[in-house]
Each structure stands twice: as C-alpha cells, then as structure tokens.
Amino acid sequence: MKVAVVGATGMVGNVMLQVLAERNFPITELLLVASERSVGKQLAYKGKDYTIIGLQDAVNAKPDIALFSAGGATSELWAPKFAEVGCTVVDNSSAWRMDATKKLVVPEINGNVLTKEDKIIANPNCSTIQLVMALAPLHKKYTMKRVVISTYQSVSGTGVKAVQQLENEIQGIKGEMAYHYPISRNAIPQCDVFLENGYTKEEMKLVKEPKKILGDDSFSVTATAVRIPTAGGHSEAVNVQFENDFDLADVRKLLSETPGVIVQDNLDTNTYPMPIYAHNKDEVFVGRIRRDESQPNTLNMWIVADNLRKGAATNTIQIGEYLIENGLV
Ligand SMILES: NC(=O)c1ccc[n+]([C@@H]2O[C@H](COP(=O)([O-])OP(=O)(O)OC[C@H]3O[C@@H](n4cnc5c(N)ncnc54)[C@H](OP(=O)(O)O)[C@@H]3O)[C@@H](O)[C@H]2O)c1
C-alpha cells in the first residue's frame, strides 16, 4: 500500500507513525504530509528519514490510503481531492463525521458498514470512541434508554499547543495559550467552542456520534465535557439507564469478553482505570462498575483510554487494516 499520513508532524500524526510501525502496516511507499511550514523537514519512520511534502504533491503521488489528522478545514478541502484520484481517506477531524453520505466507524462495532465505494471514512471523536466501545455490548443486551456522560479530558486532545501550555505553566514559563485560562491546577468546563444551545461542540459530538455508530437513535444522551491538566488519556464518568435490568456480574463478564475492552474493577485492591495506566495502550479500560441506586436498571461506570491511540491513531489504522483485510481498498 502507498500510504499518506496527512498531519504527520502533529500529536495524532506522531502516534500514527508509532502505531503503523508497531502493527507492521503493509506500507510499500510512505508519504509524510504537513503544512507548508513543515515541508522539507525530516521525520523518521522505522529508522529511516522521510522528507515532509505538501498536500498537492501527495495528491499527485496517488496514494492508496491517506490517514488524515490535520484539522477540519484541511480535511474539508483536501479529502475530496485525494478521493478523486482513487485514494481512500480515513479522516480524524470532525469534518465528515455527521455527513449522511460518510460512514463513521469503530471497526469492532460497525466495520461491516464499509464498502469499496467509501472513499472518505470518518474516525469518531476520541471521547466517543472509548464511550461506544463500552456501551455497544451493553446496549445490545440491555437496550439503552438514556446516557449521561461527564468527561475529564487531557490536554493532548487539543493538540501540540495545549500540551506546551501545560508544560510552560508547570515550569513557570510565560508562553502561548491554547485555552482562555491556565490549565495547570485547573479544570475548564469547555472543550472546543460553544454552540447556540449552550453546549460545546465536544459535548454535542458525544450526543450525536454514538447514535450514528450504533445505528440507533432510540436512546438519549447528554454530556458535560471538562478539560483537566492530565498530559494524555481521557476519562469519563458514565451513567446509563437501560430498558432491561442487569446483573452486575454479567455486566463485568460481558465487558471483559468484549475485544478491545479491559475491565479493571477490584475495590479490595483499589483497582480502577486511570490515564497513567492507559497511556500508550490500545484498549479501553472500564471500572467502578456499580448500580445507580437512585433509579431502576441504571449503571454507573468509569471509562478511560489513551485519546491519541484508540481515540485517534489506532482506530484510524484499524479502519485501514479492515479495508485491506476485506479487499475494500
Ligand atoms: N489530539 C487528539 O486526541 C485527537 C483525537 C482525535 C482526533 N483529533 C483530530 O486530529 C486532528 C489533528 O489533531 P492533533 O491533536 O494532532 O493536532 P496538532 O498537534 O495541532 O497537529 C496538527 C497537524 O496538522 C497539520 N496541519 C495543520 N494545518 C495544515 C494545513 N493547512 N495543511 C496541511 N497540514 C496542516 C500540522 O502540520 P504543521 O506541523 O506543519 O503545522 C500538524 O501535522 C484534528 O482534526 C483533531 O481534531 C485529535
């Protein structure tokens, strides 16, 4: 496969290169693409140096697959140009996620919706991916009625600039701000911009994307997304009300049998998921599984994943692997 990584110099792009190498993705030719600012710079992949090229040069090279993580505006403008030359684009931005003509895919859940005709495929938002990985098997068995999510999201979810802001603040250096406020020793109840309904864009992604991925809009979702000063890894406190009652032991068994999900839930040993343990892992970790005693058929749980891995790079690459394994590219 001739593979282009668009946004190769970014937070997600960097992890993308790491995951491509780890999984031995079948690359015959690699094109590393970024903005004009980076064209000509060198980046290493599997010990070999590659020169960063611009978007037009990448289109001209007609890659088989392009893995995009260069922001929504770049995707909107350039993904169609890659698709036009026969390339299949897997896009990490929010540009195409809710477009009715594009698939929104977590391979373990709905990889089967993909066809050869899909030339632009959307990768869900990081906080959505870890959420649906845990919700999908439970929804199948108990049928969700309502989900309430509170997120505790790391600065790496905002990109390089935000990681630098946190580093600067810890070291007492004055620098560029990615957020309106200091993030060190703080919790900012705003992830992304506010919309007319008073929710942030991130919160509305959590409301809309799970329905599209699960192919079901019969359940309702509400969310509060908060940025906290963790370097990497998003956490979510999730309350789910089901149509049907459940047994807690069955819930734990079901989740622990779900590929890509690991249950970390032992109160005797203070075992529960945390960002420091999810770091650099591809799995989604679930713990603090308990009954909501305030109303029937309702579960509380705590979900953690590395937002740059399963939340972005790994899921994108898994989509690429699915396309190759199923002869769709
Ligand atoms: N961070 C996460 O957890 C996460 C999770 C899921 C999805 N995403 C999405 O992935 C995308 C990238 O996020 P990130 O965190 O990696 O951001 P980032 O660290 O700021 O990196 C942005 C990347 O995009 C490139 N880029 C920016 N403008 C460009 C342009 N006009 N043409 C070509 N390349 C351009 C940058 O190249 P230069 O270095 O040359 O500027 C850089 O490689 C965003 O759409 C984001 O929403 C991020």
Automatic annotation (TrEMBL):
<dbReference type="InterPro" id="IPR036291">
    <property type="entry name" value="NAD(P)-bd_dom_sf"/>
</dbReference>
<keyword id="KW-0028">Amino-acid biosynthesis</keyword>
<feature type="binding site">
    <location>
        <position position="307"/>
    </location>
    <ligand>
        <name>NADP(+)</name>
    </ligand>
</feature>
<keyword id="KW-0791">Threonine biosynthesis</keyword>
<feature type="binding site">
    <location>
        <position position="97"/>
    </location>
    <ligand>
        <name>phosphate</name>
    </ligand>
</feature>
<feature type="domain" description="Semialdehyde dehydrogenase NAD-binding">
    <location>
        <begin position="2"/>
        <end position="117"/>
    </location>
</feature>
<comment type="function">
    <text>Catalyzes the NADPH-dependent formation of L-aspartate-semialdehyde (L-ASA) by the reductive dephosphorylation of L-aspartyl-4-phosphate.</text>
</comment>
<dbReference type="GO" id="GO:0050661">
    <property type="term" value="F:NADP binding"/>
</dbReference>
<dbReference type="GO" id="GO:0071266">
    <property type="term" value="P:'de novo' L-methionine biosynthetic process"/>
</dbReference>
<keyword id="KW-0457">Lysine biosynthesis</keyword>
<feature type="active site" description="Acyl-thioester intermediate">
    <location>
        <position position="126"/>
    </location>
</feature>
<dbReference type="GO" id="GO:0009088">
    <property type="term" value="P:threonine biosynthetic process"/>
</dbReference>
<dbReference type="InterPro" id="IPR000534">
    <property type="entry name" value="Semialdehyde_DH_NAD-bd"/>
</dbReference>
<dbReference type="GO" id="GO:0009097">
    <property type="term" value="P:isoleucine biosynthetic process"/>
</dbReference>
<dbReference type="GO" id="GO:0051287">
    <property type="term" value="F:NAD binding"/>
</dbReference>
<dbReference type="GO" id="GO:0004073">
    <property type="term" value="F:aspartate-semialdehyde dehydrogenase activity"/>
</dbReference>
<keyword id="KW-0220">Diaminopimelate biosynthesis</keyword>
<feature type="binding site">
    <location>
        <begin position="156"/>
        <end position="157"/>
    </location>
    <ligand>
        <name>NADP(+)</name>
    </ligand>
</feature>
<dbReference type="InterPro" id="IPR012080">
    <property type="entry name" value="Asp_semialdehyde_DH"/>
</dbReference>
<dbReference type="Pfam" id="PF02774">
    <property type="entry name" value="Semialdhyde_dhC"/>
</dbReference>
<protein>
    <recommendedName>
        <fullName>Aspartate-semialdehyde dehydrogenase</fullName>
        <ecNumber>1.2.1.11</ecNumber>
    </recommendedName>
</protein>
<comment type="subunit">
    <text>Homodimer.</text>
</comment>
<feature type="binding site">
    <location>
        <position position="227"/>
    </location>
    <ligand>
        <name>substrate</name>
    </ligand>
</feature>
<dbReference type="InterPro" id="IPR005986">
    <property type="entry name" value="Asp_semialdehyde_DH_beta"/>
</dbReference>
<keyword id="KW-0521">NADP</keyword>
<keyword id="KW-0560">Oxidoreductase</keyword>
<comment type="pathway">
    <text>Amino-acid biosynthesis; L-lysine biosynthesis via DAP pathway; (S)-tetrahydrodipicolinate from L-aspartate: step 2/4.</text>
</comment>
<dbReference type="Pfam" id="PF01118">
    <property type="entry name" value="Semialdhyde_dh"/>
</dbReference>
<feature type="binding site">
    <location>
        <begin position="9"/>
        <end position="12"/>
    </location>
    <ligand>
        <name>NADP(+)</name>
    </ligand>
</feature>
<comment type="pathway">
    <text>Amino-acid biosynthesis; L-methionine biosynthesis via de novo pathway; L-homoserine from L-aspartate: step 2/3.</text>
</comment>
<dbReference type="GO" id="GO:0009089">
    <property type="term" value="P:lysine biosynthetic process via diaminopimelate"/>
</dbReference>
<feature type="active site" description="Proton acceptor">
    <location>
        <position position="234"/>
    </location>
</feature>
<feature type="binding site">
    <location>
        <position position="153"/>
    </location>
    <ligand>
        <name>substrate</name>
    </ligand>
</feature>
<dbReference type="GO" id="GO:0046983">
    <property type="term" value="F:protein dimerization activity"/>
</dbReference>
<comment type="similarity">
    <text>Belongs to the aspartate-semialdehyde dehydrogenase family.</text>
</comment>
<keyword id="KW-0486">Methionine biosynthesis</keyword>
<dbReference type="InterPro" id="IPR012280">
    <property type="entry name" value="Semialdhyde_DH_dimer_dom"/>
</dbReference>
<feature type="binding site">
    <location>
        <begin position="37"/>
        <end position="38"/>
    </location>
    <ligand>
        <name>NADP(+)</name>
    </ligand>
</feature>
<dbReference type="GO" id="GO:0019877">
    <property type="term" value="P:diaminopimelate biosynthetic process"/>
</dbReference>
